[in-house]
């Protein structure tokens, strides 16, 4: 970008030499989409996004990856949540990623061979904080796409940080997403924030594949009754308002949290959860 920052971009109505290439008067925005590593073969790229933190976005990413892998697909996870990476922990990955001058090699999961790239696979101590400014974080996310060898991947899932800030913008602008899945919970506040995420995707011409509601209910262990502990869901209204499908509604399951905590997400099983994830995958494949 540095070599072109003083050039007037096509479609600009005035001299951009003083303001840079990105300005409101541009009519033909520059193509910022990055090219993957020359050895990569990626068929589908799907972002998993939430409007706010604490809704279980990473857990949904992990469940999608596991169910796709169980269905025989080759799956990769690009952990774009640089300051709050959790993917390696869920898969029990402790070894560091390795590479050479031109290539970073993802770390495969132990049971299903899901390729994972995360900042925690590069740190000497996974508990060390990543105290970086936005530009460096964005550059690292981009590098996880361009410099990592994603070989023969049917589905690359991009676990994005919560919100609609710098990293989400970097992913939308530089990684060729085929669509995004938006994760939410039943509260009214979250529904409002989901709208922000959907509108951001629309501004960037990124298809919204659908909504997944996490923590929809808890099933009574005695009678099986569904108890909506966060109140009545507004998901159908949100989906109708923005014209996107509801992909799944997942119950609260303490066993899922326990599986993530011990790095055993690949062994997790709960029909009520996995059936919903399979339904979501069927819609996404369409």
Describe the structure.
The chain has 286 residues and is α/β, with parallel strands linked by helices. The chain contains eight helices and twelve strands. The chain has helices spanning 57-70, 87-90, 134-146, 166-174, 188-203, 235-242, 254-261, 271-285, and strands at 42-50, 75-79, 98-99, 104-105, 107-108, 115-117, 153-159, 179-184, 208-213, 218-219, 226-227, 246-249. The strands form three sheets. It has an eight-stranded mixed sheet with strand order 5-6-2-7-1-8-9-12, sandwiched between helices. A hairpin with a 6-residue loop joins strand 5 (107-108) and strand 6 (115-117). It is globular, with a radius of gyration of 20 Å. Mean pLDDT is 86; it is low at 1-30.
Structure summary:
This protein is of the alpha/beta class. It has helices spanning 57-70, 87-90, 134-146, 166-174, 188-203, 235-242, 254-261, 271-285, and strands spanning 42-50, 75-79, 98-99, 104-105, 107-108, 115-117, 153-159, 179-184, 208-213, 218-219, 226-227, 246-249.
Helix percent reads: 25-40%
Compute the separation of the termini in Å.
36 Å
Largest sheet: 8 strands, mixed
Number of helical stretches of at least 4 residues: 8
Radius of gyration using CA atoms only = 20 Å
Q: What oligomeric state is this?
A: single chain
Secondary-structure-based class equals alpha/beta
Keywords:
12 strands; 8-stranded mixed sheet; 30% helix; single chain; 8 helices; 286 residues; alpha/beta; two-stranded antiparallel ribbon
